[in-house]
């Protein structure tokens, strides 16, 4: 079993930090923007005064996900592929931004696909071998994936409600959670292998 490579660890450390900094910085620079009511995607909309800043953070996040997918070599290949496609979807939702008024079907497609893959990849990355890091075994991977799935579904329900006043809050909860879980898996597997001398 190949070990977690250091680029994946670096990406895992940076990932959650840049995820939060992106919408905090961009939202703070847009006077009147409501972090609870408005989505992160609105920060990158063509009409947004901070669209370049938020788009750059989206691209950075997608790139870090790709790095993690390539170098988290201990993960089972289907999980790495799911992470890789999720990273590509982040580029897709950046290329097809959502307007402040109306909607973008392509943006919605890439965003929903990204959320779904980011929630379910731990199931696909599971390992059943006795020498696999504990974090990748079913006792950890399944509950984590279920929790992420519940959060993602809850967000999509809120997102589908045109009268929702907390869509931004829910999106931030899910986004931070998904980024933190991915980082946790990478770092925990890496530390486990270091302790085992691999």
Number of strands: 0
**Helix content, binned percent:** over 70%
Query: Structural class, from secondary structure content?
Result: mainly alpha
Please report the distance between the alpha carbons of the first and last residues. 9 Å
Mean pLDDT: 94
H/I helix tally:
7
Q: What series of H and E elements makes up the topology?
A: HHHHHHH
Which runs of at least 5 residues are low in confidence (pLDDT < 50)?
Answer: none
Rounded radius of gyration (Å): 17 Å
Shape: elongated
Q: Hey, roughly how much beta strand do the residues contain? A: under 5%
What can be said about the biggest beta sheet? none
Question: What would you say about this model in short?
Answer:
The chain has 7 helices and no strands. By secondary structure, the chain is mostly helical. The N and C termini lie close together (9 Å).
Descriptive tags:
7 helices; single chain; mainly alpha; 198 residues
Reconstruct the topology from this structure.
Elements: H1 6-29, H2 40-43, H3 51-71, H4 77-95, H5 105-125, H6 138-160, H7 167-195
Question: What report would you give on this structure?
Answer:
By secondary structure, the chain is mostly helical. 71% of the residues lie in helices and 0% in strands. It contains seven helices and no strands. The longest helix has 29 residues, at 167-195. The radius of gyration is 17 Å and the shape is elongated. The termini are close together. The mean pLDDT is 94.
